[in-house]
From TrEMBL:
GO cellular component: plasma membrane
Keywords annotated in UniProt: Cell membrane, Membrane, Transmembrane, Transmembrane helix
Locations listed in the record: Cell membrane
TM segment ranges: 12-36, 56-77, 84-107, 113-136, 157-186
Protein name as annotated: DUF2179 domain-containing protein
Membrane association type: Multi-pass membrane protein
Organism classification: Bacteria, Pseudomonadati, Bacteroidota, Flavobacteriia, Flavobacteriales
Domain DUF2179: 227-285
Source organism: Gillisia limnaea (strain DSM 15749 / LMG 21470 / R-8282)
First-listed, main subcellular location of the protein, grouped into a coarse class: membrane
Domain of life, source organism: Bacteria
Pfam families assigned to the protein according to its UniProt record, in alphabetical order: DUF2179 (PF10035), YitT_membrane (PF02588)
């Protein structure tokens, strides 16, 4: 039986998972009651459509949140993993219950502050719940599954859904509020990305330099990073196409915090060094997280 075929109750009720989920749900509660709902601001996804349904049809937000999330959680249960879906269901239920029985005072009516801090707290909540193993917005689940079925990327699916949602918000609340809601969504998205990936999101740094031997030594010995070396050629400039030299092309995987320091040191060694940087979503194997990969 695979891990997706059984529910890992120990993981669901572990201290870290519960702490992330509770903190995330409470952060979302602050965002919704303290900033967004009293001022008719929306987030994207199921949270946004639940706010919209409450405003238009006066159906309680908590009821909409559960009803709209259930089909997506069911898809996740069948296609992604049972433990994940149980975590998601518990997070949604907890948020719905807290929204019903806890009243948090409105913090501000300033639209810019609502957009920035409302987005920050809802994004923080989403990110923490994801770190806990679940979600509070089922749209992420269906986008992931639909991506595999019809070929559209997750970002394209979510963007299409949220575009329709914000158009609806423009008709109900006015264009200005809809525009601020887009800012809420953007802030939330960026915040949740940082919470999930952290400041140690990995980046591939490739360096082409005439001082390649020194560059290799600095990265490995001074910064303690593993490297990959490709054999290549440098040169081929528009003004001197026929001039070229053999060189080692050095690639290493670093965090965003380390990236700037390494680039500055290499620029001192070779002011004409050529860099290019690629974002990496995940790194596995080799020497592990802190020393990146073994090549």
């Amino acid at each position: 039986m695979s891990s997706t075929d059984r529910i890992d109750w120990r993981s669901i009720f572990s201290l870290s998972s519960m702490a992330y989920t509770i903190l995330g749900v409470f952060s979302a509660l602050v965002a919704l009651q303290g900033f967004m709902i009293p001022n008719h601001f929306l987030d994207g996804g199921i949270t946004g459509i639940s706010i919209l349904m409450e405003e238009i049809f006066h159906i309680p937000f908590s009821v909409c949140l559960i009803l709209f999330n259930l089909p997506f959680i069911f898809v996740g249960y069948k296609k992604i993993g049972k433990t994940f879906s149980v975590n998601a269901f518990l997070a949604v239920i907890l948020l719905a219950v807290l929204m019903t029985f806890i009243t948090f005072p409105q913090i501000t009516s300033d639209k810019v502050l609502i957009a920035v801090f409302g987005g920050f707290f809802i994004g923080l909540g989403i990110g923490l719940v994801i770190r806990g193993g679940g979600v509070i917005d089922g749209l992420e689940i269906i986008a992931h599954y639909t991506n595999k079925r019809i070929g559209f990327s997750t970002s394209e699916i979510i963007l299409t859904f949220n575009t329709l949602l914000f158009i609806g918000a423009a008709f109900e609340f006015g264009i200005e509020t809809a525009m601020y809601s887009i800012l809420v969504y953007f802030t939330a998205m960026k915040t949740s990305d940082y919470v999930v990936d952290g400041f140690e999101e990995f980046t591939a740094l490739t360096i082409i330099s005439k001082e390649f031997e020194t560059v290799k030594s600095v990265i490995v010995n001074d910064f303690g990073k593993a490297i990959t070396v490709y054999k290549g050629e440098r040169g081929y400039l528009p003004s001197s196409f026929e001039i070229k030299q053999d060189c080692d092309i050095v690639m290493t995987i670093v965090t965003r915090i380390e990236l700037h320091r390494i680039k500055e040191v290499i620029k001192e060694l070779d002011p004409n060094a050529f860099f290019y940087v690629q974002r990496i979503k995940e790194v596995k194997g080799g020497l592990g997280k802190h020393n990146t990969m073994q090549h």
